Amino acid sequence: MTLTAVDGARIDEDEEFQLPVNPEVSQETVDRIISKMLLVIDELSGHPLRDYQVPLARRILESLILGDTAKITACWARQSGKSETLANTLAAVLIMFPRLAPLFPNLLGRFREGVWLGAFAPVDDMADNIYGRIVARLTSERALELMADPEIDEKVVGKGKELRLVKCGSLVRKQTCHPRAQIEGRTYHVVLIDEAQVADEKVVNKSISPMLASTRGSMILTGTPTYTKGIFYKIIQQNKRRATNRGARLNHYEATWKDVAKAHPDYGVYIRGEMLTMGEDSDEFRLSYRLQWLLDRGMFTTSERMDELGDRSMQTVPAWHRTPVIVGIDPARKQDSTIVTVVWVNWDYPDEFGQYEHRVLSWLDLSGLGWEEQYYRIVDWLASYNVLAIGIDAGGIGDVVASRLRVLMPGIDIIDLPSDRGAQSKRWKHLMELMRTHNLSWPAHSKVRRTKVFQRFRTQMEDAELDFQGPNVIVHAPEEAGAHDDYVDSLANAVYMTADLSMPEVQEESNFFYSRAA
Length: 518
Known about the structure:
It is a single chain. This protein is α/β, with parallel strands linked by helices. Helices cover about 40% and strands about 20% of the residues. It has three domains: about 1-255, Rossmann fold; about 255-295, no CATH class; about 305-500, Nucleotidyltransferase, domain 5 (2-Layer Sandwich), CATH 3.30.420. The chain has 18 helices and 19 strands. The strands form four sheets. An eight-stranded mixed beta sheet has the order 5-6-7-4-8-9-3-10, sandwiched between helices. Strand 6 and strand 7 (about 170-175) form a beta hairpin. The longest helix has 19 residues, at about 25-45. The radius of gyration is 28 Å and the shape is elongated. Keywords: Viral release from host cell. It comes from Streptomyces vulcanius.
């Protein structure tokens, strides 16, 4: 169903922003404008953008051209050139977009009277950094030479916390997003929030975001990881989830120190020295350069643990009959997806604690299908495996699903898993113990990592929150739009099939055949 139309473009409920069938607003036209703008950015700065900087610059330009109201996040290592990339890109936008507006009225008509940029940070000193970079770029010798061109003929005037381009009307204004700041009333085409990891969520949502409403503006949030969740972390996770949708544009960009070092060898030499000084596993190094959010308390797992447990040599296994496998099903509820997870178990070699090695073989993601069709898809898909048992959460419609599958799959043990808090806690504890002892892994080959199914699995695992309710542990998706925990539930249901299996105790008794005579 079409929700709204802008400049002839459609925004649908189930799809990303779509370009209309219009020569002026074609993707080819947009790409041509972006390519020309990248040349201006290089000319303005005096050096070309590095490989890891170009995608962010392109996406900022694309978002402003389309007016797609994107919230773009950039989580880059310290001193990686993030501020320079933003300053160069936005300075070029302030100069050129008003002059391109008459040539592309449907695309850039919003900028006829200038591009209005708000540069925010949690406190005034932080805002000085990014604002100062933009001002320095607009008042540099290269910028003044560019603006002296007769076709541009522009002058820059600065006063207090604001710098204006006199003839075209563009401006950049420095503001803070501190909770006590009174910042309502401004209107912008683009808002930049630097050091967003410590920005106040209420101020961003209540005061800053509405400033973009009348202009179809875009928001850019930049920063580095920290110990707690905030508006920056939440928008990053939203962007990662949306990136798994069909036709989605990428709105989150990361550059660890290793990514930067590939394009800037001197940076790599310095950071390797810092690694020796701080320690690679120190909090400071992990936060500033490895871009790891240290959310061990309150989060089910971390991206680092996901990397450790993913087997990069393994692809998904579409069929397996050599040994019995176990299966977990999380039935769909409302907007969720039904997820089926198949897990191989190394039955012959338990460890010294009686735990078995588990490996995810594959996932089946069923969304947008009625239950009658889902039943037969599940049965058909599982026919490729030697299934020992299937675990299904009995809550909601789980008991109905289990009853129906017993009819369709009479030779397989289908187990109703209780949905009370205590029973769920046991499943989560068993799954967490398997992950802690490295007795669980999954396919993470490069071909697998490119699939939407794997991206959804990883995103949901990293999104999942951990709650301690008395003696019970509960894992659930965050209370945010688009967040789900179907893959996590399905995996927990599968591996719980082995929770009660353990090595038999060996008792020593004397053998009377070999006992000595009295």
